[in-house]
Each structure stands twice: as C-alpha cells, then as structure tokens.
RNA sequence: GCCCCUGUAGCUCAGUGGAUAGAGCGCUGGCCUCCGGAGCCAGGUGCAAGGGUUCAAGUCCCUUCAGGGGCGCCA
C-alpha cells in the first residue's frame, strides 16, 4: 500500500536527518498520510513537519526541507514538494499509474480484495425482525446495511457469516398466535374479540383466510390451546417465508436463521445463566431473577426471569450471545439494531464482560429510524396497529437497486426521510442509474469493439497520458482503500459516494477521449483502461448488492 | 430528569484534526458529423448559537437551542 510506503520513507528520512544532526532529536509522532482535497497538491500529503515543529523547535518549512534532503522516494512516486505551512506533497508517476491498469486487468474481479481480515471470523447479525408481520422500510435499511457490510468484510478478507435471529418464542409470538386464531375464527363468522394488544394489521386477516382456505375448519373443533399452537406454527412459517421473499427481492440472503427457541432446547440458556451466577452477577429480588448490571457500572439492574418464571428477551439475548462468543467462537460479532434498541447496548456490553469476554469483540451498529412520507403526509409504520407501508411495496415502487443505493447513501447515524413520492419521481433520474449507466456504456463500447474485431490484449498502456485518462486511473486505484475504510469503520455509506465519483470521472473521460477510433494503438490502450473501469464499477456495484447491467 | 443520535447549499445528504467545505435533486444557460444525451460543460448560496483545546476545528471538549430515539417483570 502506497500510504504505508510513504510513511516508512518519511520515518527513515527523519531518522537519518536526526542522526546527522541536521534535525533536532525528538520522538516521532504517528505519521498519517492523506489524500489532499485539491488535486494540485498531489496524490498524497503528509503533515509531519507541522507535527515535528513543536518538539524540535524548528519552523515546519525548514523541517520539510531537511526531510526532503534525506528522503529516498518509493518508485511509484514521481516527485515530492514542500507546501506552506508545512506539508510535504507527493505525486504519483504517470508510468506507475498506467501500470495499474494492467494490475487491475490481471486481478480482474478479485481487484480490491484485501488480506486485512485473513484468519478472522466475523458474524454479522441483522434484520432479526419478529416474525409476526411483514417487513417495513426501516427493516430494509438494516437489511441493506448488513448485507453490504458483509460483502465488504468478506472482500476485506474476513470469514463472514450472516445471521437472522428468529424470535420464535415469547410474549409477542403468543400474542401473534392468539390474534391469528381469532381472525381464523372470525373468518368462520364466530363472534370473538381480538386481544387488546393484538396484531390488528389487515395482513392478519388475509393470513387467517389463507389458512382457512388451505386447512379448512379443522381447527374449529380442536381444543383452543392445541388449535392456537398449530395455527401459530403455520402462521409463523408463512410469515417467515414472506420475510425471506422480501429480503430476496432486496438481494439479501442469510447464511443462518437462528431460532431463539433452540436456545432453550439445548443447554445454551442454562450454561449462560450458570456463568453469570458463578460471577455473582445474579440476584433474586421481588420474586424475579435479576442481572446486577449496576455492579458493572450500569444505571440499573435488569430482570432475567420474571416472577412468573418466564425468561425475558434480555435473558434470551444473553444466551444467544453466549452462543455466539463461547460456543461458536466468532472473533467479532456485529449486531445491527434499530435506534429503539439503543438502550440495550450498554447492558449487552456489560453481559459480555460478565461472561468473561472482551466487550470490544461485540460491535453494535445502531441505525437511526426511517420516517416514511408520501409528499407531505407522514406514514405510520406501526406493525400492531396495522396501516403500514411494507418494504415490498416500496421495492415494487422504486426498485431494489434504487432502494439499496438510497439506504446506503446515508450513514447509519443519521435519520432518514423516505419520501415515496420523491423516490418514485426520481427513480429514473438519480445517481443509481448514473452509476449503472457508466457500466452499461462500457459494455456498449465493448460490443462495438467486438463487432470491429479489435484485439486489445497487447495494447500499450503507456500511451495513456492525457489528463482525463490519468484522472480516471487515479480513481480506479482508490477501490482497495475504500474497501478497507468500509471494513474498518463499518461504514458502508462510503461505497455509493465512491461509485458516483468514479462514474463521474468515467463519463467525463468518455466525453473527452474517443475510445474506439482510427488510431489502433490508442484504441487498444484505451480499451484496456475502459475494461479496468468496468471491473472496478462492477466490483463496487457487487459490494453494494446491486446489478451491473450490460444494457439499460 | 438521565442517556444515545442528529443539526453543513432551497431540499436530501457526504466530508479520515489540515490547504480554496463537496455531491445529488431542483433552477438557469450552453453542448450530439463520430463508441448509448439515463451523458458532458458552466452558473451560488452554507458548517444551529456561544465559549474552549490546537500551529490548524464542520470535525475534539463544554454550554445553550432545536429535531428524533430510549429510560418496562415489552421485544
């Protein structure tokens, strides 16, 4: 990696200058290399002289001078210059730049793959919506975020497992089953009231109808308990299949669907609780069992087992994380939760500590809520009250690729407004298509090249020398850094911005540089460049979980 | 009351403590004899307010204001 190389050169130069006495001794600060915003400042910049100024009591520009006198530049750097108030700027050589085109072609779709995570396994758990109703837009955000992050992490070299945690047991499921049973009875014209906190959405009526049509009235004559159990099971399966279908439409697939119920069938739950008890973090108060998180610096304790003997969601989650860390031994676990789970983070971290694990191994991404509008009208997304706009409706309206791009374009920290009207109106006129169009345009160039039977395999890349060509290459070679940044910071939102920037420089290049022309040698060289661009565009689109169309 | 997130252009949002703060949409004007005009080029306004740290702050710290979320023997 060039940044690292430059940093090494700087370190060496400083050491040399200090040895010879031309630079005052002092401890070296951490050397950071950045990309200057202004292209005229070169490809890389270091602020080392500014940082050394204090300890060495020397003006930054003088330090820069001394460093430059001693530095031996890596081969890819053409020259380094000093800039006020104390930067050293580095510019890549054209020869090295053009060579990168060959490197990209050679790497092909593995270009951008890193070894950052080699040997480490990460589990990423997301969506994990209660299977009691259809997914809505907010869930789509988590789904897109998680699947993109998973793509980026595995491209960065990690072994990644994507998991959906299925809350298939507990209060909400009982309520769901009860509600569905009532709707089923009502379908057969029985007079019976819905439970007060029940699931009132219209989909429940449809679901009951579906079951009635499929199974007939056989549950009418069963004992209620038995009938509810059976109907719950059938309903859950149907809802889960719907969820899977929705996610599939969004190009989100999971490796594992982990059942909460299974925690109780095996010994997971008991083992986890035993560990907490051994650590003396468990106490019985007011007929309930508590996790004394206040011992670990939390505001308050939390109930594990209710006074009626049933475990809370929190207790399940403890067992679940025990399973993730201590049974399945993931090095790192990423949980993506909605903003309404924000308060759950510190106590979950406390649990990890109580289980004797390093809390740093658990990374929680809180993604802020999505508010849905249609024009000025605010739409509710409450599942129990009904009246929701489902994720599927949104995908149908704006398309999966546009959905993904839109969700990805905002950092998880910021709330988003999703205006259906706007999304639909702009669906033909937004960055999604701009990026995909660049890819399709390249495909079109190759259709022409093929038609003219141009063999560009021996194209001479050193012919690439104009500004638009070199600018394009400069953008192409950023891909590995982008992947690294996304993987380290868990911030997939950099991808769409990069994709857009890359598409922009490509379109600009295309306008200025005719690819297939009378000049055979130049045509071949440019076809190589264009192929490299296509590789990188396709890779970014793949990372974002979007299609890379040949035609549009 | 306490905790978390956010406040950047008319709107939706990027911005790794660095040099002249960016993009998309919208608006206005130009560009196709030639590889796809879903394109290219140009046009302008802005870091909520006030302190502080730093050679350097949109970015870090404190206060205030504003919006959202959380503080259950719900999940």
Structure, explained:
The radius of gyration is 29 Å and the shape is globular. The strands form four sheets. Strands 7-6-5-11-12 form a five-stranded parallel sheet, sandwiched between helices. Strands 1-2-4-3 form a four-stranded antiparallel sheet. The chain is 51% helix and 13% strand. By secondary structure, it is an alpha/beta fold. The chain contains 20 helices and 15 strands. The protein binds one RNA strand of 75 nucleotides through helix 2, strand 10, helix 11, helix 12 and strand 15.
Helix/strand-derived category reads alpha/beta
Instruction: State mean pLDDT (0 to 100 scale).
Output: 92
Tally of strands: 15
Characterize the biggest β-sheet.
5 strands, parallel
Q: Low-confidence runs (pLDDT<50, min 5 residues)?
A: none
User: Which band does the percent of strand residues land in?
Assistant: 5-15%
Radius of gyration: 29 Å
Distance between the termini: 36 Å
Gross morphology:
globular
- Determine the number of helices (DSSP H or I, runs of at least 4 residues): 20
What level of helicity do the residues show?
Answer: 40-55%
**Widest sheet: strand order?**
7-6-5-11-12
């Amino acid at each position: 990696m060039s940044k690292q190389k430059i940093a090494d050169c700087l370190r060496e130069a400083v050491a040399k200058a200090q040895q010879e006495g031309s630079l005052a001794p002092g401890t070296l600060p951490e050397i950071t290399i950045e990309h200057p915003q202004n292209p005229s400042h070169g490809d890389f910049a270091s602020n080392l002289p500014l940082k050394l100024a204090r300890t060495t009591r020397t003006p930054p520009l003088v330090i820069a001078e001394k460093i430059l006198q001693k530095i031996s530049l890596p081969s890819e750097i053409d020259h380094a210059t000093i800039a006020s108030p104390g930067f050293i700027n580095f510019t890549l050589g054209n020869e090295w730049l053009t060579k990168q085109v060959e490197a990209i072609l050679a790497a092909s779709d593995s270009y951008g793959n890193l070894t950052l995570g080699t040997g480490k396994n990460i589990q990423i758990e997301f969506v994990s919506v209660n299977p009691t109703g259809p997914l809505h837009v907010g869930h789509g955000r988590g789904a897109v975020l998680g699947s993109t992050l998973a793509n980026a992490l595995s491209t960065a070299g990690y072994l990644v497992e994507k998991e959906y945690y299925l809350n298939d047991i507990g209060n909400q499921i009982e309520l769901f089953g009860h509600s569905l049973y009532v709707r089923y009875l009502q379908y057969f014209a029985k007079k019976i009231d819905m439970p007060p906190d029940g699931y009132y959405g219209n989909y429940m009526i449809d679901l009951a109808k579906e079951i009635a049509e499929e199974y007939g009235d056989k549950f009418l004559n069963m004992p209620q308990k038995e009938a509810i159990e059976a109907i719950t099971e059938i309903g859950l399966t149907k809802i889960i299949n719907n969820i899977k279908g929705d996610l599939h439409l969004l190009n989100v697939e999971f490796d594992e669907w982990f059942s909460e119920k299974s925690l109780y069938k095996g010994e997971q739950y008991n083992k986890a609780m035993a560990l907490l008890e051994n650590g003396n973090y468990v106490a019985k108060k007011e007929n309930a069992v508590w996790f004394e998180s206040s011992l670990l610096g939390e505001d308050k304790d939390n109930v594990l087992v209710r006074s009626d003997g049933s475990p809370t969601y929190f207790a399940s989650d403890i067992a679940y994380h025990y399973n993730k860390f201590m049974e399945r031994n993931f090095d790192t676990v990423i949980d993506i939760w909605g903003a309404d789970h924000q308060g759950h983070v510190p106590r979950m971290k406390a649990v990890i500590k109580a289980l004797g694990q390093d809390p740093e191994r658990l990374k929680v991404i809180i993604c802020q809520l999505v508010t849905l509008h249609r024009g000025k009208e605010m739409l509710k997304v409450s599942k129990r009250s009904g009246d929701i706009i489902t994720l599927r409706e949104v995908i149908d309206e704006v398309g999966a690729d546009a959905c993904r791009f839109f969700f990805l374009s905002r950092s998880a920290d910021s709330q988003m407004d999703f205006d259906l009207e706007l999304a639909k109106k702009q669906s033909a006129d937004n960055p999604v298509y701009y990026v995909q169009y660049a890819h399709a345009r390249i495909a079109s160039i190759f259709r022409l090249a093929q038609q003219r039977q141009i063999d560009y395999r021996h194209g001479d890349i050193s012919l690439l020398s104009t500004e638009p060509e070199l600018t394009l290459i400069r953008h192409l070679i950023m891909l590995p850094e982008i992947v690294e940044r996304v993987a380290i910071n868990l911030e997939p939102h950099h991808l769409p911005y990069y994709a857009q920037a890359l598409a922009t420089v490509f379109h600009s290049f295309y306008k200025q540089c005719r690819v297939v022309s009378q000049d055979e040698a130049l045509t071949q060289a440019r076809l190589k460049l264009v192929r490299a661009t296509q590789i990188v565009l396709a890779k970014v689109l793949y990372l974002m979980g979007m299609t890379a169309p040949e035609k549009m």
